[in-house]
Amino acid sequence: MTQKEIKTLIDFEQQIQWRWSCGDPTAYMDALAEDVTYVDPLAKEFLHGREAVQEHFKRINSGGPTGIVRQEYHKETARALSENEVLLVFDFTTYKKDDKGEEQIFRSWNMSLIFRKTDGKWLMTHGHLSLRNSYSLENITLLQERWKNNKI
């Protein structure tokens, strides 16, 4: 795995993430391997298989406007695991505008993703997401309310 191939993967992941942030989850759905495993604090349980992860994505991103105006990547690390697999690890933050039009942090994540290149196409085989600063009472209460109303 060359550094150029890894850079291509990083660019690809950032592009599909921006589409997600803009309300278009299809790029991420199309990038899932059939045997993908996925851990997400917004899911009620660990997910296995493309169909299960796609259903989860549909539940949390219905394809409408998200209000996200910016996203940032921090501490990006890419490690080749084999000739055709790469682990990406990074911190990720999204921003929305508040009522005054000022940017505010929406969500901050720790993310680790494994992509496999098959027939020239990158497919995610594993994703593990965790919310940063999720142990504040405000964040826990917000998540509980959204789960209760099925609005995650």
Q: How would you describe this structure to a colleague?
A:
With 152 residues, the chain is α+β, with helices and mostly antiparallel strands. Helix content is 31%, strand content 41%. It has helices spanning 3-21, 26-30, 50-60, 137-148; strands at 32-39, 47-48, 68-80, 85-97, 103-118, 121-131. It has a six-stranded mixed β-sheet with strand order 2-1-6-5-4-3. A hairpin with a 2-residue loop joins strand 5 and strand 6. The longest helix is centred in the N-terminal third of the chain and has 19 residues, at 3-21.
Mind sketching the topology for me?
Blueprint: H1 3-21, H2 26-30, E1 32-39, E2 47-48, H3 50-60, E3 68-80, E4 85-97, E5 103-118, E6 121-131, H4 137-148
Parallel strand pairs: 1-6
Antiparallel strand pairs: 1-2, 3-4, 4-5, 5-6
